[in-house]
Amino acid sequence: MSLRNWNDLVREDYPEMGPVTKETIDKINKNRHRFRGGMRISTGRIWKDDEYEKRRRKVLNTQLP
Fold first, then answer.
1. pLDDT of residue 36
2. Domain boundaries defined on the chain
3. Which of 2, 28, 40, 65 could form an SS bridge with 45, CB 3.0 to 4.6 Å?
């Protein structure tokens, strides 16, 4: 059995996740007990793409002191 080098695995391109929609969030919430590591995901606090972009624009347009 031939194992791949870990450097190859780290640099591997993963498939695009696609847009985060209400349906995506519903599926995640249904199976949230299977997710590990991300507290936001495991507690169901997920932003849809449009909510994220709105927040991102607001933060980027905030003037620094």
1. 67
2. 21-60
3. 40
